[in-house]
Amino acid sequence: MIRHLKRHFGMLALGFPLFASASAYNGNDTTKTFIIPANKSYVEPYREDNPVRYNQDRPSAEIRNWTESGTNISWYLYAKPAVYKVYLQGKLPAGDKSDLLLNITRTDGSFRPQQAKLHFESDSNQVYAATLNISDAGYYRFELQPKRKTGKEFLQVSQLKFVAVSGDSAEVHQTKYLSSPSVHLRFGPEDQVKREYDWLYGEITVPEGYDPMYTYYMSLGFYRGYFGIQANRSTERRVLFSVWDSSNEGVDRNKVGQTDRVTLLEKGKDVTGGGFGNEGTGGQTYRKYMWKTGDKVQFIMNMRKLPDNYVVYSAWFKDNEKDGWQYMASWKAPRETRYFDGYYSFLENFGPGNGQQTRKALYGNAWGKIAGGDWVSFNRARMTYTDGAPGQRCDYAGGQDAKQKDLFYMSSGGYSATQYNQFTTVPKGNKIPVTDLKQLEAQVDHAINNAK
């Protein structure tokens, strides 16, 4: 599930050095050795049922059960200018032999590819791979490709080793997080006047090819929850609407008293309801729904004040006009009186196994309806991110879309160069997204009255 809201806004998009050394090095001023553990790599192509096993959360761990010829092991590393000797370390059971290829490229395509042939036997725990001359700092991909084996496994991979033989600025390292950075857009009107809204509206389009598994494209986020779409598995996608409890408990919802819990008043067809913990606690509703890339998904949310410091949050989505607005749920929240003051969206990779893949979505046509008043176009956004600490993932982008100038975009992953504008303004929306709210308001009325 997603990271807690505090993490999403824990770091503003401020400038800092792109990277600081994160890998171990040994030696003196003229010889530096950088060790990259096997478990800081990716299994490619990614499959849910891939037999390759290793623990990405440990400081270092071997890759085991590498048995399939169609599976590669790839590291994405940041390297600074120097000449490096590259070695691969691993082991095989007694009597086994294997042949591998090491393909070295740069993620932006600006480096002439190199390929090295490697031969391992049971008595060779380290094999020289290549001498690598890097003239420009950037992300490089080291892909280990299997060719032949005499035993069960191609290799139990331990680590890559880089020995800098020249270059004062030599540096090679992986990042702590193999998942890609989380990125966010905080929407509001161009005039930056603070207002109170009781309706929010937004849209997301995920371009084809930018929908890897374990991605959350969140559209309407507010001070107590979030609403968006997910790519969960190769055969499963979801629409998700969650609201936090009023307690400060961060992990165990069983510790939250009934007077602090949000309550599910009503949910739509095929919607599953429940609770969550470990990132704050609250109520969660989701619907398994195979939304499609290239199709615009619309989201709308309402808050309704009730007596005794309660409010009700209700949400709907739509991806085609024929089916109309699809009701998700209405949640009743205690100890609350606030209206919406705008909203934020985010793009998140919630699984570690495919963080090298690029995620992207278009966000826009953002609106808020003043409580008792008119709709206001949210055509200004501020971008923030997480995981961008020195030495960590900085491959994110965002701002005004190059083709559709009235839309914002966010992307994450791919080990590409950082490109973003902290503040972006697009043309104001000229068409109110929803002119008749009576049917939606009636659903809120029904949820409230049905719960009495």
UniProtKB/TrEMBL annotation:
Keyword set, alphabetical order: Signal
Cross-referenced InterPro entries: DUF3472, DUF5077
Organism field: Chitinophaga dinghuensis
One Pfam short name: DUF5077
Name of the protein this chain belongs to: Uncharacterized protein DUF5077
Signal peptide (UniProt feature, chain positions): 1-22
Residue ranges of every copy of the DUF5077 domain listed in the record: 60-161
